[in-house]
Amino acid sequence: MPVKIKTKKHQQCLLFIKDVVMNTYQQKWIETLAHANLQNWVIKPQGDDIFVELPHVTDLKLIRDNLPETIGLMALDIVVPKRRLKFIFHNGYEQFEYLLNPAA
User: Chain centroid to CA 26: how far?
Assistant: First the structure.
């Protein structure tokens, strides 16, 4: 399914999608995150996971605390079958992982 590319940032993210074999659920999440206008976030596949590189000044605790609600709302836009998916968030100094659909 073609995706309209609005900015160069989206184009770069979608190039990662084109060059890597991914499951449909992972691909839909990357597309959704790429279109969320997350300034200076680099979102790319890492195996069956999604790696998110955040700016160095990003407060990971704030991201971690708000992530379940935010991911839950974004998941409403994804209509392909759910799969287990791990998000890895890294700000250059520390990182954390968030597992979505652990039983899938």
Answer: 8
User: Mind listing the pLDDT tens digit for each residue in 1-19?
Assistant: 334 445 555 555 554 544 4
From CA 44, how far away is CA 16, in angstroms rounded? 6
d(CA 104, CA 100): 9
Instruction: Centre a 10 Å sphere on the Cβ of residue 27 and count the other Cβ atoms it contains.
Output: 19
**What does pTM read for this prediction?**
0.78
Residues 48-85: b if buried by 16+ CB within 10 A, e if exposed: ebbbbbbeeebebeebeeebeeebeeeeeeeeeeeeeb
Sign of the four-CA dihedral 86, 28, 24, 47: negative
How many CB atoms within 10 Å of residue 4? 6
Contact 71, 28 (CB under 8 A): no
